[in-house]
Amino acid sequence: MSGRAAFLDRDGTINEKAPEGDYVTTPERFRFLDGAEQAVRMLAGDGWRVVVVTNQRGVALGRMTLDDVDRVNACMAHLPIAGVFVCPHERDSCDCRKPGTGLFEQARAALPEIEFGRSVVIGDAESDMLAGRAIGARTFRVGPPPMPSLLDVARSLVSGSDA
Ligand SMILES: [Mg+2]
Ligand SMILES: [Zn+2]
What we know:
Rossmann fold, binds magnesium ion, 5-stranded parallel β-sheet, 5 helices, binds zinc ion
């Protein structure tokens, strides 16, 4: 059980994503999606190691600093999240920007009990799904209705009905 990580994307999965081409640059712009906090607590309570993996290209574009990203991530500090891993780089300039797997490798280096093969990746983008498949995890795509929400996925994982 301890080897299971639930890797969560941030924008569009946990919180409302900014309009296309824009970024969540300040805590004032961070708004949880309905049920997201409950979902994180439910997963952690069920023994999942909850890890956030997020692309924040706005840093490379000069729209915000890494400190800004930290301040936004602090909006999740009250939740049982084991780690938040950020790619601040431009497209094609690193191996951590999803669909690359670098953020997941960083998480496993920090939390060595994580087993990718027992883990899940939950996100709203194809890049999340590709990264999840690349590490051999199960993947779950979330989004606005009729797509499932993070809470829907959490419920299915906790009840075991996805098995
Ligand atoms: Mg997203
Ligand atoms: Zn990167």
